[in-house]
Design goal:
Urease, subunit C, domain 1, 2 domains
Length: 460
């Protein structure tokens, strides 16, 4: 249960508020899950009768990190030994690994992978994520299993089923309907609904329009993979005579509700359309490097005023590692030792991600916001916090440095100990489920699948 009145004090508070205040010897007062005071330790504690005081001496207190794009079930592939023909491009990675895995997933696997990824996320300081799930042979009720695991951990999360027509159109409609069904479900806890489409090369104009209509009708975010690999661009040029973002724009997908994942292979015209329509981008640098798809034009997006957030794409569930990857990758790409700045990268994991999904109540430490807060104490404090706090976060911190995690004013992790569940019991349950999934998946999934069939000749 959340402490009715919780005081976190004696910390360096990295607020990420509108003024980007950094408060040394600061404190945060929380009541009924919301932040009611932020300031110096003396001023905040004065007149605030806390039920519990959390001493954060020698700690950094900052907003919980937000992962703007993930596939929680991706944790199932960690360490797996797959005897597949080596892929030569991103499409073959999907065909030989991801899509065969999707087809083996059950609702119990959805629960187990969400439980595993959520525990690891919390232990690394992530308090909210935006997840897209895919299991074409068990769509109905999948989001209920995901939300059950999410709430057992105490996470906050946007969750969705990834609608796709890569096998048939009816499957795409069922995927979209699962998102709508879950949106209308009562008592979702900290789970939030959104609309998800896989990618423009696996969905028809009709399904995209249905997704856009549902997003508008229910005022939900809509996310879609955009030009992650070059095949996406080639597909749209051959079939429609347009590049990916141009096609999505003409259908009406681009808006402030849209979160475009990856956006690796875009030209100037496409960047202009994203900026003009206030669409958002979720950048996934570590996944892009893993799959060797290329690199997002991050600084060009920032310079155009595009809201860019940061995701892990289901690869590394430590957003400090993902921040550092973005920070270093784009500096070396432009040979610029000054940009992106540490502050710009921290913004991607906090305020920018909150803005992308319309989560105005989180992403910063400010009066009236929900109390999603992390307390960080490096294992070894080699330098003081009197210099660049942003630089310390990006260059010096890692997930295991997170000591305490507070979500909605509730202490979810205290002193590295998860408070809502038994870690050892959860671990055994997860391992049993993953062992069963690996046996069903086998070591040699198909090297190819049937080509996509959306009414015109396919490139794949």
């Amino acid at each position: 249960m959340a402490s009715k009145k919780l005081l976190v004090q004696n910390a360096v508070v990295l607020t990420m508020d509108e003024k980007r205040r950094i408060i040394h010897n600061g404190a945060v007062a929380i009541e009924d899950g919301k932040i009611v005071k932020v300031g110096s330790a003396d001023s905040v504690s004065r007149g605030f009768a806390a039920d519990e005081v959390l001493d954060a001496s020698q700690c950094i207190v900052m907003p919980g990190l937000i992962c703007a794009h993930t596939h929680l079930y991706g944790i199932a592939l960690r360490g797996s030994a797959l005897n597949v023909k080596p892929p030569s491009d991103f499409l073959q990675i999907l065909q030989r690994t991801w899509w065969p895995l999707d087809e083996k997933l059950t609702n119990e696997d959805a629960y187990a992978t969400t439980l595993a990824s959520s525990i690891e996320s919390v232990m690394n300081g992530t308090t909210c994520y935006a997840d897209t799930y895919s299991a074409p042979n068990e769509i109905a009720g999948s989001l209920d299993h995901i939300s059950r695991a999410l709430n057992e951990v105490g996470m906050r999360g946007m969750i969705s089923f990834e609608a796709t027509e890569r096998r048939n159109a009816a499957e795409g409609r069922r995927g979209l309907q699962e998102n709508i069904r879950f949106k209308n479900k009562k008592d979702k806890g900290r789970a939030l609904a959104m609309i998800s489409l896989h990618a423009s090369f696996t969905v028809s104009d009709e399904l995209i329009m249905q997704g856009v209509e549902a997003s508008a009708k229910y005022n939900l975010p809509l996310t879609i993979h955009v030009s992650e690999g070059q095949n996406d661009t080639y597909h749209n040029m051959e079939r429609y005579g347009k590049r990916t973002v141009e096609r999505l724009h003409e259908i009406g997908l681009l808006s402030s509700r849209a979160v475009l994942a990856h956006c690796v292979h875009l030209n100037e015209r496409e960047l202009e359309l994203i900026s003009k329509t206030s669409a958002n981008v979720a950048h996934n640098p570590m996944s892009n490097m893993l799959n060797a798809v290329g690199m997002t034009s991050l600084m060009e997006m920032i310079e155009r005023g595009i809201n860019v957030s940061l995701g892990n794409d289901g690869y590394i569930f430590d957003m400090f590692e993902n921040m550092r990857a973005a920070f270093l990758l784009h500096r070396v790409a432009r040979r610029d030792p000054n940009r992106p700045s540490p502050q710009e990268v921290v913004e991607m994991c906090t305020v920018n991600a909150a803005k992308a999904y319309g989560l105005s109540s989180i992403g910063s430490i400010a009066v009236g916001k929900q109390a999603d807060i992390i307390v960080i104490r490096p294992a070894f404090l080699a330098t003081p916090y009197t210099g660049s706090i942003y630089g310390y976060v990006v260059n010096g911190l890692k997930g295991p440095d997170v000591r305490d995690v507070i979500i909605d004013g509730e202490i979810i992790m205290r002193g590295r100990k998860m408070m809502k569940l038994d870690i050892e019991k959860a671990e055994q349950q997860i391992l049993k489920s993953m062992d069963g999934l690996w046996r069903r998946f086998g070591s040699s999934p198909p090297a190819t699948i049937e080509p996509l069939r959306l009414g015109k000749p396919s490139l794949v």
